[in-house]
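URGENT: need a sanity check before tomorrow's submission.

F., can you look over the Transglutaminase record below? I want to be sure the sequence and structure line up before it goes out.
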Amino acid sequence: MKFAIQSISSLGAVLLGFLLLANVGITSAGRGELESLTAIEKAIITETIQADGTVVEINELTTLVKSQLVVDSESQADLPYNSTLSKLEVLEAYTITPKGEKIPVAANAIRTVEDDNSSGAAMFSDQKHKIIIFPKVTPGSKTYYKTKLTTYKPLLPGYFYTRLIFSPSVEIRSYEYSLSYPEDLKLYTDIKGVKQTKDEVVDGMRQVSYTYQNLQMKKKEQYQVSSGDYAPHIYISSFPSQEAFAKAYEERIKDKFIITPEIQKQADEITKGLEKKVAADPKLDLKKEQARALYNWVTRNIRYVAIYLGDGGIVPHDANSILRNRYGDCKDHNALLITLLAAKGIDATSALINSGSAYTLPKYPVLGPFNHVITYIPAWNLFLDSTDEMAPYGTLPSDEMDKPVLLTKLAKVGSTPKPKKEDSETATGITMQIEKDGRITGKAHTMYFGSAEINARYKYEGAETTLSDKLVKNQLAKFRQTGEGKITTSYVYDLDKPFTTNTEFTLDAIANVPGPGAITVPVGLAPGELASIANDRPPEKFTVPYTCATRTVGESYQIRFPANTKVTRIPPNVSYKKAGIEYEATYSEVKNNIFVVRKLAIQRPGAVCEPRELENWKDFYQVFIKDMRGQIFYE
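Structure tokens as predicted:
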């Protein structure tokens, strides 16, 4: 479970930041340009840091509803706030109809609700939401609200930040942000694509203001990185660097890692007997085997429960209470694992990371894009994510590769490893018999390695339960096949053993035998990784960086035709090697048996590709799709 660092900064830095990051909708205007479904008519945020550290923010937002498609979503506003650290008041709210009539929001249409838990994850939070329900919203209407947020306590002592990101896919006609703070308070500012309109000192208070406008929307692109990696923004922080924030954060959480007698006892029990194992195999390292055992135990025994109370959005519980309760979120997983490792003399540190699509860090710390915590062992340059219950020791999921991390105990910025093609691999062997009536029976065996193994463990979890029939049906339907089959797997929760799947299947007739005809290579009940890639046609173009996969996929097939048919033609061999993309496909025929071997290896420079890289993939895709559609002819 991810997204376990909860941001509870000022409303402007959270609410409007989320609003501007949202894809509010774009449609064709019929003249070649794009037309938004809604527009931010006017946004005004006025924020004041008072001498005692209290932050008061006045937020005004006027939204123009331009299409019936968004009337339902724009008929209410959802304003989150932390009820322990702050107070939110709705000062005014109304709808302006297309005819100019102003209709106030009734008092009973402004409601306070608990944090949403519709995702199903166990979560306890003191974050609440003010819900404003606007009356008589139609296309052409405008909604308006004015709120006051008072924050009494910062996340960390002396910590103030503003993080505003302006998505290019949102029409913003007028946006103003003003900040007033004591002249002797040092703040650090990083802006991009916005205009500063004021910077002056009045009566001991420094006042700064910024404006922004975006009248030309861009459609959100497939696979694009987070808007925060490239979009206009306003970042303001009371910390001069990410390293300074790391020191303050580590100081705040260091008392959560105490090795109590209970912790020591548990660590000793988990690692019991490993000395004998290492003594019997000189290739093993005792400390590494202990770390593996401790990681596996935390992964399997600490249930994910998110608890965001007070400063719990960024501060973990103490390790001993996590051990006793046997639950916690990513911060808690990390705290317990670090403490158990320390009990065996293994030093580790917290690593703050983004588990989404953000791949860059702001110059100054504004909490985001960090939303997750994993564990780093410096001695082995090893990252561990114990919240990912399907990740074998030393393997990170693909969305955590090639990411900047803040190593808090070391007070420095680091990076997770870049993806390598051999570290995410799927290898499948398939045998198929085409029967005399055209049906196909077959078997498939697949081995998974690295991050591909993580994905497969999640995909096939429950394959040998009552979910089996649904899984088989969905897998066949994915490649437009009908039939029946059975899936068996190695134990998905045994992270120390490689994960494999075996399938047996019967496909309904897809071949007109006997008689002249042709078929492409069937997928059967195999994973069909290459077929999935073939079905994912690349976009025409990218204008911003996008996430791109590094992986290896190998598939080998033996297709036996019945005695009453004769294979007359098979596809030609294919060899492609260019710009980090290697593809080989070979075809041969021996006594009515067709042997096909296909292997695709993609090595990208990193987890993110620049727009120009798309051309390399598009060139390869035309060769690849032609081969995947190649047919075996028979009569």
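My own read: Residues 1-32, 118-123 have pLDDT under 50 and may be disordered. The chain has three domains: 11-238, 247-417, 422-634. If you see anything odd, call me.
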